[in-house]
Design a protein that fits this description.
By secondary structure, this protein is of the alpha/beta class. The protein has 2 domains: 215 residues, Response regulator (Rossmann fold, 3-Layer(aba) Sandwich); 145 residues, Rossmann fold (3-Layer(aba) Sandwich), CATH 3.40.50. The chain contains 12 helices and 16 strands. The strands form 3 sheets. Strands 1, 2, 3, 4, 5, 6 and 7 form a 7-stranded mixed beta sheet that branches. Strands 9-8-10-11-12-15-16 form a 7-stranded mixed beta sheet, with helices on both faces. It has a two-stranded antiparallel ribbon with strand order 13-14. Strand 11, helix 9 and strand 12 form a beta-alpha-beta unit. Helix 11 packs across helix 12. The protein is globular. The N terminus is likely disordered.
Length: 381
């Protein structure tokens, strides 16, 4: 039992639940530990807030019956094998009606077969790789969904911003060869940047666990780019930014949605003159109450705000689908998720396309400034 606890770090969070028959069992998988722990902790706290709100308001209305949420959470430790184990336990033993998280594309892809074989819907919070919701042939995975926009769109946004907003023509890329997210974002950026008339003067890879990027950065510096694109996430992201600046590379740095405020603790002011794609603007007034509640509940400011908001909205999306399905049958719930149209959530109005992706979502460009990320511009290339 001890080994099982250590392997999966099971946490059960129930608010206002009296009897098992009075609950809706929902699963969450988060990167509570490992390189992506900062993202996972934010998602955990955000979903706890949503559960508390929903249960305090009377729970989920399932065909006229008000049921409380019983949230079962596992830590996947940023490892594919732990992600698969957690997914199997949730669908086979815990018998949840749906699962939320985590944010990593590779993690969600690794467990997608589990959810489809069990016919239990899964919503990824920030997995932007196309293969999260479709297979290699482009066929839709019936039980996999996401609340975020995709890497092709995100890569195009980075390219458009670099070429059009910043006016840059020579780009270098430093990416993680072991990450589905990073590889996808790199591929789509390069393709789009060339379409905008730009040139890729350097394209260097590393592995996610690396901490020294000076060899790659030396080659990049020698190529004399006017913009450096770093489509990664986790600790390697601020480390690579810091080392680039220490080597005298003062050009703008542009990245995807891997940004988190935790990066300032590692990179400090070397983050200045860097820009990041985001799904949300932290300064959006509609998010103010959520961030205030987050600080009240946790005693800390919400740093990984993209993850927190997407996790929070994912639970409300799942609640809405359960209520529209008027059933606890996961198959019917998945059908309701797929049919989502014009659903008003905290950060957006959500409509699903035929590939289980959000349709026509705006992107935000954030600038790293004064110890945080601030709104720079809204973008839809």
């Amino acid at each position: 039992m001890k080994k099982l606890f250590l392997a999966l770090a099971l946490v059960v969070f129930v608010t206002g639940v009296a009897f098992a028959a009075d609950v809706v069992k929902i699963g969450e998988i988060a990167t509570q530990t490992g390189d992506f722990a900062a993202y996972g902790q934010a998602e955990i706290e955000a979903i706890k807030i949503a559960v508390k709100e929903i249960n305090t308001a009377g729970g989920i209305d399932v065909g006229g019956n008000k049921l409380m949420i019983d949230l079962v959470m596992y830590d996947c430790r940023t490892r594919a094998e732990d992600m698969v184990s957690a997914a199997r336990r949730l669908v086979n033993e815990d018998k949840v009606v749906g699962v939320i998280g985590p944010s990593g594309s590779g993690l969600c892809i690794a467990a997608s077969t589990v959810f489809n074989e069990a016919q239990v819907p899964h919503i990824g919070t920030l997995p932007t790789n196309p293969l999260v919701t479709v297979d290699e042939s482009g066929k839709v995975k019936p039980y996999n969904f996401r609340i975020c926009f995709l890497d092709p769109y995100q890569g195009k946004m980075i390219a458009y911003f670099s070429a059009k907003s910043l006016g840059k023509t020579k780009a270098a890329v430093l990416y993680d060869v072991a990450s589905d997210y990073s590889q996808g974002l790199r591929e789509f950026f390069i393709e789009s940047f060339k379409e905008y008339g730009g040139e890729i003067v350097a394209d260097e890879g590393h592995r996610g666990e690396d901490v020294d990027f000076r060899a790659q950065l030396t080659k990049i510096k020698d190529a004399n780019p006017d913009v450096l694109v770093i489509p990664t996430m986790g600790k390697c992201l601020p480390l690579s930014v810091k080392q680039a600046r220490e080597m005298g590379m003062n050009m703008p740095i542009v990245g995807g949605d891997g940004y988190g405020d935790f990066m300032w603790e590692i990179a400090g002011d070397t983050l200045l003159n860097s820009f990041w794609v985001s799904h949300v603007d932290k300064a959006d007034p509609t998010l103010a109450k959520f961030f205030a509640d987050y600080e009240t509940e946790t005693g800390t400011e919400c740093q990984e705000f993209m993850n927190a908001v997407m996790a929070y909205d994912s639970l409300y999306w799942l609640k809405n689908a359960i209520e529209r399905a008027a059933s606890l049958d996961p198959v019917k719930i998945a059908e309701a998720i797929a049919a989502t149209k014009d659903l008003k959530l905290l950060h957006c109005t959500l409509t699903m396309d035929e590939f289980h992706n959000p349709k026509d979502k705006d992107g935000i460009i954030l600038e790293a400034k004064d110890g945080k990320a601030v709104f720079f511009e809204k973008i839809k290339p």
